[in-house]
Amino acid sequence: MEDVYKLINQARELGRFWSDIRLPEVIFMGPVNSGKSTLINGLLQSEICPVDASPCTFIPIRLTAGSAFYAEAHLRGKTRRIMDKRQLADLVRRKAPGKVTGSIEIRHTADILNWCSLVDAPGSGLSTETDRLLDKLVAGSPAEIIFLLHQRGMDSSIHSYLNGIRKLIQSGNINISFWINANTGLSDGSTLRETVASLRQLLPGRSGVQLISTKDHKSIELLSLYIKTSMAGRMLKQIEKQLRSMDGSLPVRLGKITGIKDDGEFLRQFWDLHQDARQLLLAREAISSLPGAGGRIHWLLNDNARRLVLLDVPSGAALKQRGKHSGQPLKMEQLIKEMAGDSILNKIIPAPGLKDLAEKINNRKCVIEVVGTFSSGKTTFLNALLGESILPTGDKATTSSTVVIAYGSEKKAVVRSLLQPVFNPVRKKDGKYVPDAREMKALQSLINDKEFFSVVADVEIAVEKSFHRIPKDELAAALEDTLSQLSREKKAGSAGKIASLLPGFISKKAPSRENPPLMAVRLTLSNPLRFVFDLDNPGQRERYVKITSPPYSFIIENVEVFHPSMPLRKAYLVDTPGWDSPDNPRDVKKPVFSHRADIRLHFLHGKHLASDVRDPPESSLPEVYYVINFADTLNQLEREKASLFIRIKLPAQSGKQPLPYPRVYMISALEALRGGDEGFSRLVRQLARGVEDRHLRMLRETGEQLGSMLGEALERCSSGRTGSGDSRNAAKIKKYLEELKSLSKTSNMPGGNKLWKTPGC
């Protein structure tokens, strides 16, 4: 990192010489509670910006360099001196997220402020007013925007906001970088890939995303270096024109100096010339080192991201810990982790390459998604696979949210809410306003739930397109007014039909439309809700069923269930709401097929196959298994008709050719749950083979990559290109190659199905 620090020191010295340069501005933006203020405090190495579990930054806080702490607030056209940090926190927290005016200016002694001013901006999506204020900040063409995301990555509201400011960013040629704050625990790395993919479409050429943690000192130090290096490059570009002018004037000045006869004047001007020449050489050296320093920072950030994803990578002492098990073949992931922690081997093979391979193995489980109509037995099948009735089932629709089922030592469920759930109680259809009974009922139920409504911090309503704030206690009345208005219009419409049959001189003109009704309601919670349920406890299981059913399912962002079932060691199971479910929180006209699924189980009810059959899109890559449930109620002829329906009629609905060899399984999920069903057992065995095949294929590919890396390293050792200790290094590499060879043999051995032992098979 010497090249980075050298560039920073050179730029610092040049900055003193070119003292008239205006410092650039860096704005910290991102969704509410993503950790922007905490990150700035880390950069300042001082608790300056107020931090709270609920949103507390409603106006911009601008920080600049100063000899001591000084702060003043500019609110409603008045300037107010802030005496200390406690008063600052009180003032910021008292500022309501309503009409946003003014700002807070702070001077501080932190070193980072000698490079740029920092702006702690309100969170995006907090309110319409704050979003407009953020637009103004972006329109001011800052030097850089540090956009901090939650650990979960991008959601639809962030995507929508970025889409709204995309033109401002592109037209202003603003540098924007995206950072995921992994401050809630270990990251699995998936949000990095998904966020990059989203940004690649949204902001082409600006899709770089880094993983940091506001709880990690090294992350903050690297971000500080990134900002200083970026600002150094910006400063050098600013003075480049002046440097060229100075370079051209040096020979002329030298010629004039040689003609000076006064010794004192000669020495003075010659010294000035010497200083200018020195600054010129320093600037040239700094400019030439910029690409290398920038590349080094990028590499360090990538390495830091891998560290945050793989914090459990063993140290170099791992070799000593093998002990008596050293003769046994290690698992592939253990072998790679051991190699990544081998400090000697890392001098030959870069650790990041090994960590990439370890990440590939650790984070890539097979994803099995279950889709279909409601009450087709999807959840009952999953219960049979887990070996017990742990997920709610019934004759009516019971799955209102997508549920991800993963391996865990304890049986528990984790439910997380949205920060800003949006409801559409009225929709416009064919030019008419139509109430959505489900959305209206859910919203009214949540308003009447005093415990839930107490955590609602902000209420916004939209009559047409834009949202505006209203007091919480006025929302119920606004909904009642909307219902009354729609009811009057419906009666007026009926009267209009009758009047149209009467002569013109008798009929009366229908009353004109009132103001447009309430179209959308956005609730902002003081903090996203998180519920954890012990599924071994009957009472908590009942609470889990309640919280994942309407009206609460309308505010849920994700549901995770953990279970110590053996199949979950190598696969995630995903349960989805029925396509035609009356309790679906949104009117979904098309099924949302996950692009991450490896295997999709397409469930159909044996007694009514054609009720609502939907075929995955062409771009969907997973293998599709067609599962006909309630097969125990079908005779042989009905079974044959069901198979024929899947092979010919189902693809015909999408204008496709018949499926030549569809995978069709006849099962009874209920019988499987009770103790045994041959069709279920066949399906589970096929799933086990599919999961195992994918795992083995991934292991083989990883083993080939690892073998290639070790082979190249061994060749370098044999040719003497790695320096001293070649023979010792070669022996260590050969040892790893032998272990890899033994792993390659065992990875091809059968027996993977043993992991999938369930009561039914």
Euclidean distance between termini CA atoms: 58 Å
- Specify the CATH architecture of the largest domain: 3-Layer(aba) Sandwich
Return the average pLDDT rounded to an integer: 77
Domains, number: 5
By CATH, the topology of the largest domain is Rossmann fold
Give the full name of the CATH homologous superfamily of the largest domain: P-loop containing nucleotide triphosphate hydrolases
Q: Please give the radius of gyration in angstroms.
A: 33 Å
Record field, number of beta strands: 24
Unreliable residue runs: 311-330, 497-513, 587-595, 749-755
Strand order in space, largest sheet: 4-3-5-2-6-1-7-8-9
Q: What is the helix fraction of residues, given as a range?
A: 40-55%
How is this structure best described in words?
With 761 residues, the chain is an alpha/beta fold. It contains 22 helices and 24 strands. It has a 9-stranded mixed beta sheet with strand order 4-3-5-2-6-1-7-8-9, sandwiched between helices. Strand 23, helix 19 and strand 24 form a beta-alpha-beta unit. This is Dynamin N-terminal domain-containing protein. It is found in: Membrane. GO terms for molecular function: GTP binding; GTPase activity.
